[in-house]
Specification:
It is a single chain. By secondary structure, this protein is an alpha/beta fold. It has two domains: 189 residues, Tubulin/FtsZ, GTPase domain (Rossmann fold); 93 residues, 2-Layer Sandwich (60s Ribosomal Protein L30, Chain: A). It is 49% helix and 21% strand. It has 13 helices and ten strands. It has a ten-stranded mixed β-sheet with strand order 3-2-1-4-5-6-7-10-8-9, sandwiched between helices. Helix 5 packs across helix 6. The longest helix has 24 residues. The chain is globular and about 60 Å long. Bound molecules: guanosine-5'-triphosphate (GTP) and magnesium ion (MG). Guanosine-5'-triphosphate binds next to helix 2, helix 6 and helix 9.
């Protein structure tokens, strides 16, 4: 018996195993606010097969969104948007609490996509994640931070981020400012499309891992363990010829989506590789090896791999780095701790 036939059998086996739990995972994808709803529309267009829910305060925007369910947060907004007011976004979701709660009945994993900086995404997302978590779901939020030049929006989004971190199991962050470095010449709407695609691609990769036959299956309970306490996370993406997997990894590492990223601080990583059917297993292993060497020795690493014939001899690598530290959140935590100390002193 050749090694190839063993590998073929092994992948057929993992497909069987995958089909066994395929029906058991109940997943939904929720888009909150304008940017979040745009992202889920894109996922639908790209062929996402799990149910999607669009939530917004803006009826005009909701009417052009593609989603299986649409929820208008109309209390206090009259369906005209929040006008950039986080409190209004928050209140409108609190008032719709019961309607939102019903969305998550029996759901195990909730992905939330949103763009911080406006009133709806920033205000309603912490409420929605809190409800989903109380219903027993694992909540993974993926969000964009506005450009720093959107000054007031940026300040608002920091506050929102902290609240969302409190209520989601994992928050995957992408900074719009990084777009400036990656695609400086693109007009703004096209640059947003790049972000939408990144959000979509990340969520769809997770869903593929959970529901599609794979060459290397991600163990669902391992995935849950990693994402349950993922805290602040981000992604890296690289694609290239499978003859040089290290180059793909180095390119991805050189192109993070958060500013001032220090990889050595990550507590764990989920590595997902999509490769053409002519890609040798050795290329997959050396890519995983290259990524692992950048992470701490004791970090928790999960690997999944999927064959996609249309990739030929190419491979794409997605890494979700969990438990990262980024300067502006760290600084604020320090300030908070200091001010608490001050209060104690005064008392
Ligand atoms: N990825 C992406 N980001 C966007 C898009 N449009 C706006 N943004 C960014 O997302 C942030 C939030 O904008 P929106 O989603 O429009 O705001 P909202 O949550 O609907 O809130 P309000 O409109 O104030 O009620 C902005 O500050 C931009 O940085 C988009 O189409 N895609
Ligand atoms: Mg809006």
């Amino acid at each position: 018996m050749s090694i190839e036939s063993l590998i073929r059998r092994a992948s057929a086996y993992s497909m069987l195993e995958k089909n066994l739990y395929e029906d058991r995972v109940n997943v939904v994808v929720v888009g909150v606010g304008g940017a979040g709803c745009n992202a889920i529309t894109r996922m639908k267009k790209l062929g996402l097969e799990v149910p999607t829910i669009a939530i917004n305060t803006d009826i005009n925007h909701l009417s052009v969104v593609e989603a299986d369910k649409k929820i208008l947060l109309k209390a206090g907004t009259r369906g005209l948007g929040s006008g950039g007011q986080v409190e209004i976004g928050e209140k409108s979701a609190i008032i719709a609490r019961e309607e939102i709660r019903r969305l998550f009945d029996g759901i195990e994993i909730v992905f939330i996509a949103t763009g911080l900086g406006g009133g709806t995404g920033t205000g309603a997302t912490p409420v929605i994640s809190d409800i989903a978590r109380r219903e027993g779901a694992l909540v993974i939020t993926i969000l964009t931070m506005p450009f720093k030049v959107e000054r007031a929006r940026f300040q608002r989004s920091r506050e929102g981020l902290k609240r969302i971190m409190k209520h989601s199991n994992t928050v995957i962050i992408l900074e719009n400012d990084k777009l400036m470095e990656i695609v400086p010449n693109l007009p703004i709407n096209k640059a947003f499309m790049v972000m939408d695609q990144l959000m979509s691609y990340t969520i769809m990769s997770f869903i593929d891992m959970i529901t599609k036959p794979s060459l290397m299956n991600v163990d669902l309970s391992d995935l849950r363990t990693l994402m349950e306490h993922g805290e602040l996370s981000t992604i890296l993406i690289g694609e290239g010829s499978s003859t040089d997997p290290r180059k793909i990894v180095v390119d991805a590492l050189n192109r993070p989506f958060v500013m001032d990223m220090d990889y050595s601080t990550a507590s764990g990583g989920l590595i997902h590789i999509t490769a053409g059917d002519s890609v040798p297993l050795s290329s997959v292993y050396s890519a995983v090896d290259a990524i692992s060497s950048f992470l701490k020795d004791n970090s928790n690493i999960i690997v999944g791999a999927r064959i996609a014939p249309e990739f030929d001899d190419r491979m794409r690598i997605l890494v979700v780095l969990t438990g990262i530290k980024i300067p502006f959140i760290q600084e604020e935590r320090l300030i908070e701790e200091r001010s608490r100390e001050e209060i104690y002193k005064i008392r």
